[in-house]
Amino acid sequence: MTAADLIAFNLILAAALLSPGPALLFALRTAIADGRRAGFLAGAGLGLMAGLWTLAALLGLESLFALFPWAYLGLKFAGAAYLIYIAIITWRAASRPITDRPRPGGRAFRDGLLINLGNPKSVLFAAATLVVVFPKGMNAQDALIIVGNHIAVEIAFYGTFASLLGSGMARRSYHCARPVIDRCAAALMGALGMKLILDR
C-alpha cells in the first residue's frame, strides 16, 4: 500500500460522504438542533461504524453476505426500521415546544452508530472501493492504517459540519424554522428508510 493509494481512497470516501444519505442528514440535523458537541459525537458514532464496516470488508464480510443473503437482508431491514423510527420521533417532536436541553452526547453517538450499523451497503461500498484502490495481499498493519484513516476522515468531515452548523447563529435560525425543517428531515429519513427496504 502506498500514500497514493490512501489519497485515492480518501477522495472516493469524500465524494461518498458528500452524497445525500441518512448519515449526512442525521449529522447535519443533530449539529443544528443540538449543538456542536452532540453534532461531533453523532459524527463520531457514524465514523466509528463506517470504519468498522471497512474492517468487515477487509475481513471478507461481503463474501459472508453472498453466502447468507438472509443475514444481509435482516441487517438491512433492521437499519431501515431504525431510520423510520428516528423519522417518526423527529416528526412528532417538530410541533413540541423547544427546550434548552440538547440531545445528550451519548445518545447522539449511539444513534450515529446505529444508523450506520443498519446500512450494510457500507460494507459493499467499502469492499468495492478496497478492491479497486488497494493492492492484493495487504498485511494487518496496512488494514489497521486503512481503518484508522477511514474513521479519522469521517470524524473530521462530520466534526467540520458540527463546528459550522452548531454555532449560535445557525441554531437560532433553526429554532425559527424548526417545525418545517424537522418535518422535512423526518420525511427524508423515512423515505431513505423505505428506499433501503425496497432496494434490491
Description:
The protein is globular, with a radius of gyration of 17 Å. Helix 3 packs across helix 7 and helix 5 packs antiparallel against helix 6. Helices cover 83% and strands 0% of the residues. The chain is an all-alpha fold and 200 residues long. The protein is built from ten helices and no strands. The two termini are 33 Å apart. The model has no long low-confidence stretch (mean pLDDT 80). The protein has one domain.
**Helix/strand order, N-terminal first:** HHHHHHHHHH
Question: What can be said about the biggest beta sheet?
Answer: none
**How far apart are the termini?**
33 Å
Number of helices: 10
| Count of DSSP strands | 0
Radius of gyration: 17 Å
Percent of residues in helices comes to over 70%
Structural class: mainly alpha
Output the keywords.
200 residues, mainly alpha, 0% strand, globular
Short description:
By secondary structure, the protein is an all-alpha fold. It has helices at about 5-20, 20-35, 35-60, 60-65, 70-95, 105-115, 120-135, 140-165, 170-175, 180-200.
Task: Describe the secondary structure blueprint for this structure.
Layout: H1 3-18, H2 22-34, H3 36-58, H4 61-67, H5 69-93, H6 105-117, H7 121-133, H8 140-165, H9 168-176, H10 178-198
Helix pairs in contact: 1-8, 2-3, 2-6, 2-8, 2-9, 2-10, 3-6, 3-7, 3-8, 4-5, 5-6, 5-10
